[in-house]
Design a protein that fits this description.
Structural class: mainly alpha
Order of helices and strands: HHHHHHHHHHHEHHEHH
Strand content: under 5%
Shape: globular
Number of helices: 15
Strand order of the largest sheet: 1-2
Amino acid sequence: MHMLYPSLLRCTLLGTSLSLLTACADNHAASQVEAATPAAYNAPASLPTTTLSPSKAATFEQPTQSFASWQAAFRQEALSAGIQAAVFDAAFAGVSPDPAIIRADRSQPEFTRPVWEYLDSALSTARVRRGQALLVEHASTLQAIEQRYGVDRHALVAIWGMESNFGQYMGDKSVIAALATLAYEGRRTDFFKGELITALKIMQQGHIAPSRMRGSWAGAMGQNQFMPSSYMAYAVDGDGDGKRDIWGSLPDVFASSANYLRQSG
């Protein structure tokens, strides 16, 4: 959950749309939702694509220091921060810099397109209707979390819809590889080193298997796209199984988003 201005705005707009649709929905409207084509529901999040200029599409230029040297130095930092050697070595097995991640970092659609053009492409009738149906499907879980955290269920479903298209697209990048690439590249080294160490701590604590720790090119994770530091600060165990699984447990996803918003005021 990056919580950049466009992300907050689009979630607010979708939440308002969900609220209005739910308030005025009747049985006829519900039947229309159920009859909607599966393709409309299963499409990946409709984030706008951006055509890269030749300069942005250029091949990633390696920093002066080799990745192997950087990794060796970072390994010592991680171990000093409490990461076990076995955890680090398993997490970094086969990891190498990914030029596609660098290009994505330099061409974020939120900043390369006018905000209203971006919002028009991100919001759709199909997505709002899907959100309306899911509000009904998960009503009991959402009601319990709404009562516990004092956060409106429409906001939670809106965030879920905009961040991962209701869990259908959470990103397919290794979080460790993505964060390592961004830390090595050097534009925001300190920030991504911190996120990388936190991601290793999440793995070390057993909340998620390394093979399932996948997310966006920026290292945002799960159905609500938390960065590792946000996960560590705000993710909660909503289903009582002892883990904070924002990838596969909807109670954990909703409760974590609600906790994030409540703690953020």
